[in-house]
Amino acid sequence: MSDFIPPRPGLAQGYPGPGRILHATVRDLLSLFPESGFNRHLMPFRTLTRRVLVVNEPELLRQVFITRHANYEAKSQHFQHALAPLIGDSMFLNSGATWSGRREVMTRMLHPSRTAGFHPIFVRGAEELAARWSGEVDVAQGLATATALAVMRALLGPDEPWEAAERLAVSFGAYESSVFAVDFAHALGLPKRWSGWQRASAHRAAREVRDLCAGRIAASGAAPGGLFAEMRAARGPEGAPLLDAEQLVSEVAFLLLAGSETGANVLTWLLYLVAKHPPTLTRLREEYARVLGGRAPEVADLPALVFTKAVIQEGMRLFPPVPYLSRQAAAPDRIAHIPVAKGDTVLAVTWLLHRQAQLWDAPHAFRPERFLPDAPRKLPRFGYLPFSFGPRVCVGASFAMAEMMVFLAVLLQRLDVTADPSMIPVPGARLTLRPQTGMRLTVAPRS
């Protein structure tokens, strides 16, 4: 099977200076890293008064995220300030006892054993999206709406409307395009009271998301069977509600953001990849014909869709939905030969790690076969982190994988998708990895 090498941004040759670091907060965080960064194991650099260390080697990452997890449990101050207006004090931004108490609830809610209960929601959402698409469409926007709707229905009940999910997706997108992903005041060493500044447009988009979440919670009445009812019923050690009303909104906003952004971003890139690589599309449809015979997948079918899963895994390798994982050191440490001071930021940049030549053959090429069970080269342990890893591994990974498998199977059986040869979608990163100008593809019902 011939390779397809998708577009990627041209990177600088040298390490960024303070000016480029600050400029990247407004434009695109991928521009921070030099071309040599794909194959460097450690990359230290400074933001005037702060130090950042990029760790890009599996064994060193294991030490940071697993062996020394207690020292690197907290998300970096940059990341907290970038997301707090949107998701408040949600589990994602917490650490310690608060995090562990909420994570226990989320782990029960999204346990892989419950995937069968979510499956009809995935099928319904994919079929609604297929029926709405015709002609040239921005598949990124449509997928953002459909995956947000799937999470809304899982949380709040099956009657959640398309229009609410569409408003949510638009507001999420507006926040992503407005937010500063690096805290200027923190980077410049200014007093802490000045930290966390964001544009008015970012705060406006965050309020829209939170107001919409609160409104949908009220409208749903916490429908029986929805995950929100379990969140609301959760109790702390003393028997009091684990989450108050504001915290419930924060957790719903986080679940909607995480649950929709992962699936939507990966599926957006996958539709482009299969449109540009006919051999992959042909092999997918052969698998669907053999396993599904033209129908939507059932839960029992998913383990048999081996190539579908491999395509999704390769899509997440090339375009990880969360392109970097950030942590802040709680105490001084040393990573390999580099000292780490208390408060330093340590990053695992999956965008770099997933394309490192020492770990992957043809690292920039689209090769789903590398994830098949009979692939000649084993996957690098701790070298593939689409859902993070260690104690803070994503609790919704099974939900996301099942959702993406269902959506891909439904859409590619029902629709033909083509890409204009002149369109070159370039990935950009602020909080997540998105095509910088959307993803306009031509969609038509299959005859």
Explain this structure.
This protein is α+β, with helices and mostly antiparallel strands and 447 residues long. It has one domain (62-328, 390-445): Cytochrome p450, CATH 1.10.630.10. The protein is built from 15 helices and 11 strands. Strands 1-2-7-4 form a 4-stranded mixed beta sheet. Strands 3-11-8 form a 3-stranded antiparallel beta sheet. A two-stranded antiparallel sheet has the order 5-6. The chain is globular and about 60 Å long. It starts with 17 loop residues before the first helix and ends with a strand. The mean pLDDT is 91.
Describe what is shown at a glance.
It contains 15 helices and eleven strands. It is an alpha+beta fold. The relative contact order is 0.18.
Main traits of this protein?
447 residues, alpha+beta, Cytochrome p450, four-stranded mixed beta sheet, three-stranded antiparallel beta sheet, 15 helices, globular
* Distance, first to last CA: 26 Å
How many independent structural domains? 1
Q: Helical residue percent?
A: 40-55%
Main pleated sheet? 4 strands, mixed
Average pLDDT confidence is: 91
What is the topology?
Layout: H1 18-26, E1 42-47, E2 50-55, H2 58-67, H3 77-87, H4 96-109, H5 115-132, E3 135-138, H6 139-156, H7 162-178, H8 184-188, H9 200-220, H10 227-233, H11 245-276, H12 278-291, H13 306-318, E4 325-328, E5 333-335, E6 338-340, E7 345-348, H14 350-353, H15 397-414, E8 415-418, E9 427-429, E10 433-435, E11 440-445
Parallel strand pairs: 2-7
Antiparallel strand pairs: 1-2, 3-11, 4-7, 5-6, 8-11, 9-10
Helix pairs in contact: 5-6, 5-15, 6-7, 6-11, 7-9, 9-11, 11-13, 11-15, 12-13
